[in-house]
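Backbone-to-sequence.
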């Protein structure tokens, strides 16, 4: 399958494509030179991300960071509050990358508010079988033990549109919407929704976080999208 790690909302023309990239490089350079400069693991992760690396490739960077006590302390501090998490996050997930050879492409997005409210929009492309949006909403609960818990209580799906649909209301939603909501709640396992935070640098412009999905020992690297970006489709 084709590479799915483009940044959200890439403009289509060559001129428009170059200018945001140049602006990103300039802003990254300026920000790195300030008193709030990104730490070395974050710089390495961002460079790998911009080069198209998946979570499996970035995992060694994360694992090296976990051996540094100061980085472990920083990750635990980030996990203890949701105030600095606000924004749209794009994730690269190791266990999804492992099935890309089948033609399945998955692009997860997490829209997080400072109070911990979260809406997940995952675009799933199945090649010739089509594509759709799978969405959920709930809360991100911080913890002082260095983990975060994602609890979802509403679930819905949407067609292969450029953007995901909003959550359908219980009054106006269809029978399919009601069935998806019910099945999602039955299938969701809170015990599997605890994610250790292995690395975190939540600088205002270039936040990047690495989690671990322990049932699959899977690395998840998530990057905060530029302000104003919206979820976009995977490319199959």
């Amino acid at each position: 399958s084709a590479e799915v790690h483009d940044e959200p909302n890439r403009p289509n023309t060559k001129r428009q494509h170059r200018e945001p990239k140049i602006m990103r490089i300039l802003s990254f350079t300026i920000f790195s030179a300030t008193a709030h400069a990104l730490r070395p693991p974050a710089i390495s992760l961002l460079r790998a991300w911009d080069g198209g690396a998946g979570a499996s490739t970035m995992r060694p960077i994360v694992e090296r960071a976990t051996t540094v006590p100061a980085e472990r302390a920083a990750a635990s501090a980030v996990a203890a509050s949701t105030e600095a998490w606000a924004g749209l996050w794009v994730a690269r997930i190791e266990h999804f990358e492992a099935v890309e050879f089948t033609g399945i492409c998955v692009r997860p997005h997490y829209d997080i508010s400072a109070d911990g409210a979260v809406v997940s929009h995952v675009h799933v492309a199945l090649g010739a079988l089509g594509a759709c949006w799978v969405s959920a909403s709930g809360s991100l609960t911080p913890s002082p033990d260095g983990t975060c818990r994602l609890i979802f209580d509403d679930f819905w799906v949407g067609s292969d549109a450029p953007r995901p649909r909003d959550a359908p209301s219980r009054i106006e939603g269809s029978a399919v919407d009601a069935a998806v909501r019910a099945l999602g709640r039955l299938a969701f396992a809170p015990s599997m929704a605890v994610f250790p935070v292995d690395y975190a640098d939540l600088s205002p412009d270039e936040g990047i976080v690495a989690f671990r999905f322990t049932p699959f020992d899977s690395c998840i690297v998530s990057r905060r999208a530029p302000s104003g970006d919206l979820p976009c489709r995977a490319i199959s």
